[in-house]
Specification:
Strand content: 25-35%
Distance between the termini: 38 Å
Largest sheet: 8 strands, mixed
Radius of gyration: 17 Å
Structural class: alpha+beta
Mean pLDDT: 84
Order of helices and strands: HHEEEEHEEEEHEEEHE
């Protein structure tokens, strides 16, 4: 694909179609939470402006990207992990969408006016932080500059080409062993930056739902150190 305007509109349509079937594919992590706090994350897709995807694959436009960030290593919840922008509900938030947009603005500096909200997906319990998370799917209609706003929370903000994420060479199964338990899940290697856990699980399911995914070998396993 060439990344034309028509192809980008096609990506938006595929996200809309996936959102309509969200109940079928939204991952359900085998975790229970007690009296969870509501939270939201923003899964924001748009048109990459200057960094080309290094792939010859044609399942998705080379210009399509998703917004991610790396959390500070000093945080008590998910330290050092790559995540979507997001966080816990606050009293001034009108709803889960408002939470996602506010948190994304506070963490990355994006202008929420340029974001078209496609859908709020089904809630996902996240026992590690005792959150009940609503993923909010968005389309970056008018991209704005982004960067880590508060380095005490976010180390860096980056836009990753979707074509690079779905490249089978960048896919593997993450293996986390902790407290006598073993957790395995889909993961992505972005130039040495590992995306795993909750964020990778959602991306993996969403790429399958949109038809952007390529066959990859889940037998390739790599340990995750936290």
């Amino acid at each position: 694909m060439t990344g034309s305007a028509e192809e980008m509109r096609g990506a938006r349509a595929e996200l809309l179609a996936a959102a309509e079937r969200a109940g079928e594919w939204t991952p359900r992590f085998p975790m229970s939470v007690d009296d969870p706090w509501p939270a939201s994350v923003l899964i924001l897709f748009g048109r990459l402006d200057s960094i080309p995807a290094r792939t010859d694959d044609e399942t998705v436009s080379a210009d399509l990207d998703v917004l991610l960030q790396r959390r500070a290593a000093t945080l008590s919840s998910h330290p050092g992990q790559v995540s979507f922008p997001g966080g816990g509900y606050e009293e001034q938030d009108a709803d889960t969408v408002a939470t996602a947009l506010r948190e994304a603005q506070e963490e990355t500096g994006l202008d929420p006016q340029g974001v078209e909200v496609i859908a709020a997906l089904p809630e996902i319990p996240l026992a590690v932080s005792n959150f009940l998370v609503t993923p909010v799917l968005g389309w970056w209609r008018e991209p704005s500059r982004v960067a880590a706003v508060d380095h005490a929370e976010t180390v860096e903000v980056f836009r990753v080409p979707v074509a690079q994420l779905v490249d089978p060479a960048n896919r593997f199964t993450s293996v986390l062993r902790r407290d006598g338990y073993t957790y395995k899940g889909p993961a992505f290697d972005v130039d040495g930056t590992i995306v795993w856990g909750f964020t990778a699980g959602i991306l993996d399911a969403l790429f399958d739902a949109t038809g952007w995914a390529q066959p990859w070998d889940p037998a390739v396993e790599r340990p995750v150190i936290v």
